[in-house]
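Hi W.,

Here's what went into the run:
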Amino acid sequence: MSSEAALDFAPGVGADIGADAILNALESVVIVAAPNRTIQFINDAGEEFFAASASQIRGHDIAQFIPVDSPLISLLAQAMNDGNSVFETGLTIATPRIQRQVINVQVSPLDDHPGSAVINIFGRSIADQVDRQMTHRNAARSVTAMAAMLAHEVKNPLSGIRGAAQLLEQAADADDQKLTRLICDETDRICALVDRMEVFSDQRVLDTVPVNIHLVLERVKALAKAGFAQDLNILELYDPSLPPVEGNHDQLVQIFLNLVKNAAEAAPASNGEIQLTTQYRHGVRYAVQGSRAQLHLPLVVTIQDNGPGIPANLQNELFDAFVTTKPKGSGLGLALVAKMVDDHGGVIEFDSQPGRTEFRVMLPVAEETS
Ligand SMILES: Nc1ncnc2c1ncn2[C@@H]1O[C@H](COP(=O)(O)OP(=O)(O)O)[C@@H](O)[C@H]1O
Ligand SMILES: [Mg+2]
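Here's what came out:
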């Protein structure tokens, strides 16, 4: 396929396979919009998407097929103005022709054709969308309610029991003192457990300042190396120009420590490897369900391990509390991570396959104050 054929969209010109044939084989929608939003080209997937034929669509303003106030139209304008490619996830579009659909969109200006852009639409089932980020938030919320209940209903009576045992201890003989000690030790153990849950019920607004994420990761690495990740190789791929995140240092350490600990526990004993990556992604926005607001979360921290992967049957409830496959696991690690990432206004995602599991945490940039 010559580049000319690709730009003119003339099928088969001077090539064995025409550009049209290639674009029509794609499952994603490809639209080329000329200046004034006129649709110049649309592939087969696009005809299906708009429920109209290419001849009905070509030459018309895209606003005839998508509502003018649709975020897709403003995205198109943004890409054409800025001359940069923009990517947005979780847009909802609905018209009389198109039933409500959640989509991911990439709009890329055509450098050689000023004012023209390629729109690439990837369909996403609503279920898929609900599945990822939002279930995590719900998971965090259900734990929050339970933690509050535990703190109240369990801790208060426990301290009464402990106090009573201590009183008995004073008058007890040596044998009975063993029993009163046992009561105290066990109540302490339950209290500690409830304390760990209590962080979930913390509903205060997070105290945030600009935080250098690399200092956070350095801390996490030092803690990991001193303990559970002694024999593992930890690789760091950092973008040194990353701006500070708006966050809480201690909680960020906790988030990444939990993720690195899981990675370490999953990595094989020999040649176990964990990779920490930071990057800045332009133009990625997340839709917030139930509102028109969009999150701009350009800071991405990835924790990747070469372990066996997350069991398929766990993936839908991974962030729920008490989900664990470890004999001595609490199943609280990821639930806490989900809550803290949520409190930071961030989003967490994962991808897992045997030999390569990665958790990605997307965070907001600190506002510039100078
Ligand atoms: N990097 C990973 N690779 C494979 N499985 C993982 C990974 N991270 C988490 N998991 C799975 O998710 C479960 C829940 O993790 P977590 O909430 O931290 O609880 P815990 O570590 O106490 O089991 C783990 O038991 C494990 O099965
Ligand atoms: Mg864990």
